[in-house]
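Please, structure for the following, as tokens.
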Amino acid sequence: MILANGEISNSKESKAVLKNMRSQIIRTLDKPVLDPLLVIEACDKLAEKIAYGEYDHIIEELKKEGIISSEQISFIILLLSKKHLLYKIGIELDKTYPKDVKWQPLNSGGKRHRKFYPLGVLFHIAAGNIDGLPAYSLVEGLLAGNINILKLPQADKGLSILLLSELIKIEPRLSDYIYVFDTPSYDIKTMEEMASMADGIVVWGGDQAVKAVRKGVGPNKKIIEWGHKISFAYITEQGMKEEVLEELAYHIFDSKQLLCSSCQGIFVETNDMDMVYDFSERFIKIMEKTAEKFPQTDIGIRGQINLHLYKEELEMATRKQGKQKIYKGKDCSIIALEEGPLQTSLMFGNCWVMPLERKNIVEKLYKQRGYLQTVGLLCAKEEKEELADIFGRAGAVRITTGKDMSTMLLGEAHDGEYPLMQYSRIIEY
């Protein structure tokens, strides 16, 4: 399905829509910049409709199919609320509505003024790890005043088009700023055509997706990368309390470790592998108990994980240095390593555990600074500030508790940057 000119149509219509898009875009660019309040009011009405149950017949079907949960629905309502969006635009663009959407003096002399303008046209290449996230990426583009072309991920199950089409029904004037396509990534010609109309390209996904865009885009296009990130927990001796370990385990299963902010593994503050083994033995029991609260992972995925673990066990048996152990529980596992790369886990209730002394944190992590995102600290209160500073120097951009690693707060940055600022330019006169 595609969404263009305010209407949902069959994918076969993509070529016809693209043929006329450039001229439509030029006509829209010639209009006054999109009023952010128009976007905010429409999003807020959509949030209210969701909260009041107007889409329950659709949402219940999505729940049955495992596409979305009640918690995710509540999160969507929050993200689209007027309170959140006004706060977001105030934080990210340093302006309040309506005072600061007009030309503002650059300095006390008043000889020059400035104003935030949209980049113009954004081409969003979305990832499929969170249902509905492509729609929110486009909403952020609207808030900055841009015309938006959204390429849906293959894994998208229709939630993004549903949200955006309903948004247009609420505020038809937004139709000129929203184009959504389900074009497959291998259709390079169509992808290049979309990119040619854009002033900025927003890329969500792994390294390969980012590399492909960089390779195929000319020098005058701004590329905004929301690429692959790694998140992990760090546990000190004072942080090994049963309650906080249970909270971390809950986060691991709740996020399925599919998000950039999901805990992929755990560093224990020690240089003693026996302490790592003791912790792993303790934590696998907590993981196993937590797994019972969640639906079992798809049998195909579980089979792949078991094969990988079996392969790891065979390889360990042939290695001369055997300071590695695998701890298996029902629907979960832990691989304890003395040393290893910072990488994603097997996910779905599986993680690695390694030792890391506080004095070695920066040395261990600096080579992968660009990939670091969230660190979940499990430590004493008096240790938090020191450790937050250390991990900040190492390259991490979010420091949270273990349970809040994937919890979004009002006004927080994304990967250490403000999206709306990335989607804007400053004009001075």
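The longest helix spans residues 299-318. The chain has a mean pLDDT of 87.
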